[in-house]
Amino acid sequence: MTPSLSLSDIGVRFNGSRILASVDMEIARGEWLGIIGPNGAGKSTLLRAIMGAVEFDGSIAIGGVPTSTMKRRDLARSVALVPQHPVLPPGMRVVDYVLLGRTPHVHAVTGPSLHDLDVVATILSALTLSSFVDRDVTTLSGGELQRVVIARALAQESPILLLDEPTTSLDIGKQQEVLELVDRLRRERTLTIVSAMHDLTIAAQFPDRLIMLADGAVVAEGGGRSVLDPALIRTHYSADVKILDDGSGGIVVVPQRSQDPMNDSKN
Amino acid sequence: MTGEEIRPSRLHWWWLAGALAALAGAGLLAVLMGAVDLDARSVLLSVVDRLPFVDADSGLNDRQEAILWELRMPRVALGGIVGAMLAVAGGSYQGSFRNPLADPYLLGAAAGAGLGATIAFAYGAGLPSTPVDTLPLLAFIGGVAGVAATYAIGYSVKAGRTPVMLILAGVAVAAFLTAIQTYLQQRNAETLREVYGWILGRLSTVGWGEVWLVLPYVVVSILVVLLGAGRLDVLSVGDDEAVTLGVNPPRVRLVMVLAATLGTAAVVAVSGLIGFVGIIVPHAIRIVFGSSYRVILPLSVILGAAFLILADLLARTVAAPAEIPIGVVTAFFGAPFFAIVLRSSRGLGS
Fold first, then answer.
1. For residues B314-324, average pLDDT
2. Which of A46, A145, B130, B185 is most exposed, with the fewest beta carbons within 10 Å of its own?
3. Are A87 and B237 inside 8 Å of each other by CB?
């Protein structure tokens, strides 16, 4: 079967410096691929390249069709992005914000149809946001906001969903809630998901497969157990970690201090 | 929950009806009041009389008819057209640049038109004659050239074509053009008063010539701006996200700014630099009716027209028989009005 999303030999340069180089990846329909890597590794840039928001060398194809030949509007119907730091227009209500996700489907002049409103209503219900419709987006809490931004991306009805560090500013409960939601939506709607991820333990739990980026290149690829290797993490994150079994088949990445803190404090 | 239950922001018909009623009221008031007061019944009958296939006796004498149709009506029409254009252009700029302080004069339109007008006042007599008066022609050319220069500079910035770069380029172009304008003004001190009067704005017009002159530009640019209203809502989440929603932000911005600028240059050419309308009208509407440009822009057209008609009424009646420059009125009455709207708002964040 043709992969849902395939990237071959992707390179991105910005102001002369290399952000990404020779990145290849194939993502199957319905798969969840997690992209990990230290700050500045190129995770966000990779997602932006898929969205056509940065210029790149190489080829990105969706269902075999190169994105470079697609109109912006058609690309937005195929891929939706949940940005890491969404821009929130002051005074905009949740319903209007989520309705923006219909932009690639809405006629620019006539505005949203009843079908567009139905799509938005269904998504708001599915994400238990029905009671929020009239709230100003700038007054939402972190968890509420993340659900609203995901709702906007879902309103695009794109088969591929990109998430840029979707849980960065959330507490541990909200992190789980948001990622369980993404996983549920993936199953219900057969979405292909690519998420840049920050927390390595969570990266081990949710995606089917991981890719580690460092300095703009893929340095490891595979299941959680093979990519989340203490030596690799030491090399690329400059971090000392232990990988532990969580007792139910999963793994946990635990940071370690290089010296015993008790001894340290005595000196 | 179904699609019929969610209520996205849109222009309700009763808002539209209310705004139109306000415009009609302002227009009628402005037609009736002045050095010679006309009564409402006669004016309405005179209007009815002008309709095809209808005959009505207004009871107005020839002099009153002339005041009504050659002085008051064209002046009210011109005020409405200028006010509508400046207000909707302000809204269009604010949405395009995601900057609440952007207005039609920002990108060099005002400075360019001012320079054009100064040249017309200072050297107009020596220029070859044209089908259109030199003053509006040069003011129009100056306004468009000012914005074109701003775009050329802003888009040549290597670091990236951001709205901020464009606004900074506008500041530079405006400063440069204003310097030339001031120099010419000082060199031709005898025209100082005329130039100054033009800069403060005025709607004194006799007959319909200026109305017909600017109307085509204004109609086209208002139509283009209104058709793009939904796109401005998308730009409100920033260029990066707008791209992921399938929109081309630089293109949207170019079309919206071009349309707003063309219309602004046209009205400025006949009315001078009437300030403040493009800022306060769209903002007052935003505060009262919400942040969607699908609501702000159409209401700006109607309420901008009503606002400037009333401002002009004050300009010619407050100190009658003298006239106050209308730009003074829009600021003097507009600023406190805006302050009141601001104070009573729930606060829309920063």
1. 85
2. B130
3. yes
Q: What is the ipTM of this complex?
A: 0.87
Residue A167, exposed/middle/buried by CB under 10 A (0-12, 13-18, 19+)? buried
If you count residue pairs, one on A and one on B, with CB atoms under 8 Å apart, how many are there?
A: 113
Place of tokens 């464009």: B166
pTM: 0.87
Instruction: Tell which A residues from 132 to 161 touch B, by Cβ distance under 8 Å.
Output: 133-134, 136, 138, 156
For chain B, the residues whose C-beta falls within 8 A of a C-beta of chain A are: 1-10, 227-228, 230-231, 233-234, 236-238, 240-241, 243-248, 286, 290-292, 294, 348-350
By CA distance, what is B99's nearest residue in A? A89
Element (H, E) at A255: strand A251-255
Q: Specify the higher pLDDT residue, B212 or B159.
A: B212
Query: What digits encode the pLDDT tens for the residues B103-130?
Result: 777 788 888 988 998 898 888 777 666 6
CB spacing of B238 vs A87 below 8 angstroms: yes
pLDDT digits (tens, 9 = 90+) for B156-179: 876 666 777 888 888 899 999 999
Encode pLDDT of A4-20 as tens digits. Answer: 899 999 999 888 888 88
Helical residues (DSSP H) of A32-158, grouped into ranges? 43-50, 72-78, 94-99, 114-126, 142-155
Question: Which among A211, A168, A174 has a CA at the least distance from the CA of A36?
Answer: A211
Q: Does the pLDDT value for residue A266 go beyond 50?
A: no
Cα separation, B160 vs B157, in Å, equals 6
Please provide the size of chain B in residues.
350
Q: How far does the CA of residue B300 sit from the closest CA of chain A (Å)?
A: 18
Contact B315, B32 (CB under 8 A): no
Q: Which residue of A has its CA nearest to B100?
A: A90
Can you state the percent helix, strand and coil of chain B, rounding each to 5? Answer: 75, 0, 25
- The residue behind tokens 């998901």 is A193
